[in-house]
Amino acid sequence: MKTQEEIIQTNIKQKEFYNTKKKNLATKIWSSLREKTLKKIRKNIGILDQSYDLHKVWFGDLSQKKVLDLGCYAGNSLSLHLAQNAKEYIGIDLSDVAIERLKKTIAHVPTAKAVAVDFLTEEFAEKDFDLIYAYGVLHHFQSVPVLIAKLNEKLASNGEIISYDPLETSLPIKIIRTLYRPFQSDADWEWPFTKKTYSQFNNAFTIMERRGLLGKTKWFFLINFLPMSEEKRMKIGKKWHHQDWENSKTSNAALFACMHVTLFMKKK
Q1: CA 35, 170, 26: angle at the middle one, nearest 5?
Q2: Eight-class DSSP state of 166
Q3: Which DSSP state fits 206?
Q4: Are the CB atoms for 217 and 237 separated by under 8 Å?
Q5: What is the pLDDT of residues 79-128, one digit of tens each?
Q6: Which residue intervals of 86-191 are DSSP H helices?
Q7: Beta strand spans in 33-183 (E)
Q8: pLDDT range class, residue 35, cuts 50, 70, 90
Q9: Which residue has the higher pLDDT, 155 or 30?
Q10: Facing residues of 212 across strands?
Q11: Where does the pLDDT of residue 26 fall: very low under 50, low under 70, confident under 90, or very high at 90 and above?
């Protein structure tokens, strides 16, 4: 297990990667599959919008909250919403190139700022956050105990975390990722959640609510090979997603069959 200092050294390489976006062929292929295939499925079926809408519900009233947008790059889909509605907003990312873009996006919001900094270093001294929003971020930390300790350090009493991350608990996905990993450009900071990872977060925080995504729905692309109308395909896809969405709230079997998980957690 890596120490905090070792992770900080890895993050220096991660910063360079996200500043330059230099990917080898294997990483480009996986990125294309993820962005062009899986993201298209999530968008067309309504998974993305439903996730964002749920996150807004979980945010609650932001007017009295100090918010950290962790690892937000140049701004995720809800960064501007957070910046405009929070009492105080700070967006941070390793990439100084991306943060310069975010600064321009939120320049009109006097209570918002963007900083290029490593969350784990002493350089980032801000704390007492009422909400930490981590969209596609927590799985970038190899050592979950180090991450959990830092999250607890930065949260105010009763502070909350909203996260969205990939899961590596479905056997087909685990096999694919295992075959791909030796060729992956960003393998050093890509650690999709395992059952152990979920258990560590479950023990450290109170999980108020959760949802799994792309469980049964991850096979939706196969429907395109069947002779049926687009309307019928969408009907099947939405039905599968609804089953994933609802069943994963309470069933670990349903949750761990999914490719993604979003969590609403509270500091104990």
Answers
A1: 40
A2: E
A3: E
A4: yes
A5: 999 999 999 999 999 999 999 999 999 999 999 999 999 999 999 999 99
A6: 96-105, 144-154, 171-180
A7: 66-70, 88-93, 112-116, 129-135, 155-166
A8: low
A9: 155
A10: 261
A11: low
Q: Determine contact, residues 82/130, Cβ cutoff 8 Å.
A: no
For residue 130, give both structure tokens: 């009422």
Residue 109, exposed/middle/buried by CB under 10 A (0-12, 13-18, 19+)? middle
User: What is the amino acid identity at position 20?
Assistant: T
Say if residues 106 and 80 touch (Cβ distance below 8 Å). Answer: yes
Q: What are the residues facing 264 on neighbouring strands?
A: 162, 209
Rg of the Cα trace of the chain?
18
* Residue 248 vs residues 20, 25, 126, 132: alpha-carbon distances, Å: 37, 34, 34, 23
What amino acid is encoded at 90 in this protein?
A: I
Q: Say how far apart CA 197 and CA 45 lie, in whole Å.
A: 28
Alpha carbons 256 and 268: distance in angstroms, whole number: 24
Q: Which amino acid is at 208?
A: M
Tokens of 136: 């596609």
- pTM: predicted TM-score of the whole model, two decimal places: 0.91
Strand duo 260-267 + 205-213: pairing: antiparallel
Dihedral of the CA atoms 195, 91, 93, 156 (nearest 10)?
-50
CA distances (Å), origin 206, targets 59, 113, 200, 213, 218: 16, 29, 11, 21, 28
Side chain identity at residue 18, one-letter code: Y
CA 90 to CA 114: how far, in whole Å? 6
